[in-house]
Design brief:
Order of helices and strands: EEEEEEEEEEEEEEEEE
Largest sheet: 7 strands, parallel
Structural class: mainly beta
Distance between the termini: 32 Å
Number of domains: 1
Strand content: 35-45%
Length: 173
Amino acid sequence: MPAHTGTYAGVENKSLVGGTEVPWFFSSAAYSWAKGIEVTQFLNPGISIDNSFRVEVRLVDPYRIICPSGGGSCLISVAQGSSELLIENNIILDADKISQSGAGSVVACNYTDDSSIDYNLGWVKVGINASHMAGGHHVLFEGNYSHNFDSDDTIGNAIYMTVFSTWHGGRRT
């Protein structure tokens, strides 16, 4: 599991197949990036961003996950006080969510579809959100296609979300 801690650390044009650990993990990172990453057949988050500031995730292209269970297949997981992130121009298929939290962040021009949960295939999972942990705020969602956008009333509150020029189909393809 490549972990990036520190300032100006990045990974570009890499492909990882399989595994149960987080393939790409940013922890206490600042001004760092993941670009041109392919994550295939993973379990647990594909990219995890914890306690980080101004991390950019761009051009991530996952194919299939191992287990489409709740929480186990969140492609981009943002948690633990991360802020001012840019999550842009990614393709998210078969994964639960694109983001979970992150104050002052931008989630733009992403395509997300076909997320499910293994014990209830009729349930349309969130797709994109910034409210899976308490305290998410001031996040801009612009120019995305997602089967669903939701605020999470299970785990925590979220305030001041802006959704602009985004298509939410309300069902998986």
